[in-house]
């Protein structure tokens, strides 16, 4: 089956003529100049009757390209300007951003991690690199980590018993996932934040307050998933996580998915 090229009719005719005449290098050059955010070679045999190795070797004959051999992508170096603009935009919005190739690739669907790494390395006039993280030149790395540590904690404190998932918080703070995970791990170790499930981290005081409210409710009635959802306006996922945490209290007993105070049974 032919592979559909996202080209306008006039462009497609030109491209097909190059293929018909077996001018493959010119075809690659055409694709390089036409596709602003790169083109792939995953289907190189289907498109050009070339193996991946043959297609990559041909791509290496082109000028002004970055070749991502791992992901079989060819990028016009002009795309580097778009990546640099995006990185500059992030730093203008948040000078304390902690960046990595993988975090950028998650934000830019067209850019592979390899291309992002290439772009980051080409911004030595703007960025510094330490412990796997790129950050704004002139900022002390340890102060940067401490700043983001405090920011993440304050956000979780403000969000109380309905915190966002970690990856949403990382994106808001412009943190790469590894750095964000390390900060959450530190906050958890300090007992300032409690991890209830894979993506649920709650500020300790907010959790303690909720547990006290639950114990107070249990003096007069039981609690289950539905009543937790309704009383505290929680999602089912959060209601289950909080009930499971409540189960750790020796004063509470679970019976038929309901929670009771042992003294009331």
TrEMBL record:
The residue ranges of the Elongation factor SelB fourth winged-helix domain are 219-261
Q: Is Signal found in the keyword set?
A: no
Ordered alphabetically, the record's keywords are: Elongation factor, Protein biosynthesis
GO biological process: one example: selenocysteine incorporation
| Gene Ontology MF term list | GTP binding; RNA binding; translation elongation factor activity
Q: Which residues cross the membrane?
A: none
**One Pfam family hit:** WHD_3rd_SelB
| Lineage top rank: taxon | Bacteria
Annotated GO CC locations = cytoplasm
Q: Kindly provide the name given to this protein in its UniProt entry.
A: Selenocysteine-specific translation elongation factor
**What species is this protein from?**
Campylobacter coli
